[in-house]
Automatic annotation (TrEMBL):
This is Hemolin. Residues 1-86, 95-186, 204-283 form the Ig-like domain. Gene3D superfamilies: Immunoglobulins. GO terms for cellular component: extracellular region; plasma membrane. It comes from the Eukaryota. Its main location: secreted. Signal peptide: none annotated. GO terms for biological process: homophilic cell adhesion via plasma membrane adhesion molecules. PANTHER family: CONTACTIN 5 (PTHR45080), IG-LIKE DOMAIN-CONTAINING PROTEIN (PTHR45080:SF8). The keyword Disulfide bond applies. Belongs to the hemolin family. InterPro entries: Cell_Adh-Cytoskel_Orgn, Ig-like_dom, Ig-like_dom_sf, Ig-like_fold, Ig_I-set, Ig_sub, Ig_sub2. Residues 28-47 are annotated as: Disordered.
């Protein structure tokens, strides 16, 4: 298997892979002229070759493209590489990793019926197998999620900050895979919202959220870093930032979601959060 080969996702069950070679404009595929008398003469060899692993492939079109049919067992997926016969020998094309897009018929996890406390953060989750990863959006009571700066969509989760009475309702997640041209909607999970009726101190705790530990982003992108914490009274959150090769500094921001907008190079580094007075609560 080749390293660092980007995945080529294919939407239809029949893929047509193009043979792309370095300096393609300078390379002319070697096509021997047809013999004057075709009788008893060998047929000119196909100027394009394709391989998958150690297997030579035959479904090569005259323009060098390779046709690949999707197989249920997944054996047609994998790394492919072409070559072009040239006057000086063979010129290898760029390898590619073929995968056929898919979206499962059913969610592996649906939003659950649950209860949240007013003033606390809460997270709703769903999950579905998809290749490439599906774009997830959320619905509340059958409509698109209201525009609210307390709502944050994090991969397969919906984070609600500072829960209020109006957040109660039936939530569903909607998964869309544009490559597979498929959309699925989960079962509904009802969120009830209540006041905390206890008078006891509740120890701080970090909500489990799904977020990559290493995030790669382009300049001017937007990156959302979430660190939701529950507890009574409301815990104090501290954010820290460590630029490459420099000392760690404390940020003035104390919210549970740090949004880096119009990302710039000086914002590259390690971000961490922890609960004041609780050294064991950090991420």
């Amino acid at each position: 298997m080749y390293k660092d080969v980007p995945i080529t996702w294919w939407s239809s069950p029949r893929a047509s892979l193009s043979c792309v070679v370095p300096d393609a404009d300078r390379i002319v595929a070697r096509r021997p002229p047809p013999p004057l008398n075709t009788d008893d003469k060998p047929r000119p060899r196909q100027p394009y070759l394709w391989r998958k692993g150690n297997e030579d492939l035959k479904r090569v079109l005259s323009n060098g493209a390779l046709e690949v049919l999707r197989k249920k067992d997944g054996s047609s997926e994998g790394d492919y590489q072409c070559a072009v016969r040239h006057t000086a020998g063979l010129v290898l094309g760029f390898p590619l990793r073929l995968k056929f897009a898919y979206l499962d018929k059913q969610f592996s996890a649906h939003p659950e019926n649950t209860t949240a406390w007013i003033g606390q953060p809460y997270v709703l989750s769903c999950d579905i197998n998809s290749g490439p990863a599906a774009t997830v959006s959320w619905q509340k009571d059958g409509d698109a999620l209201p525009n609210n700066n307390r709502y944050h969509v994090l991969k397969n989760q919906l984070l609600i900050l500072d829960v209020q009475k109006e957040d109660a309702g039936l939530y569903r997640c909607k998964a869309t895979n544009s490559y597979a041209n498929r959309t699925r909607i989960s079962h509904g999970g009802r969120l009830q919202v209540e006041y905390y009726s206890g008078f006891d101190h509740v120890e701080p705790s970090m909500l489990p959220i799904q977020q990559d530990s290493i995030i790669t982003a382009k300049k001017r992108d937007t990156v959302i870093l979430a660190c939701p914490v529950t507890g009574f009274p409301k815990p104090t959150l501290i954010w820290q930032f460590t630029p490459p090769g420099e000392r760690t500094g404390e940020l003035e921001y104390v919210g549970e979601v740090l949004t880096l907008q119009i990302l710039d190079m000086y914002e590259e580094g390690v971000y961490s959060c922890h609960v004041e007075g609780h050294t064991n609560l950090f991420k």
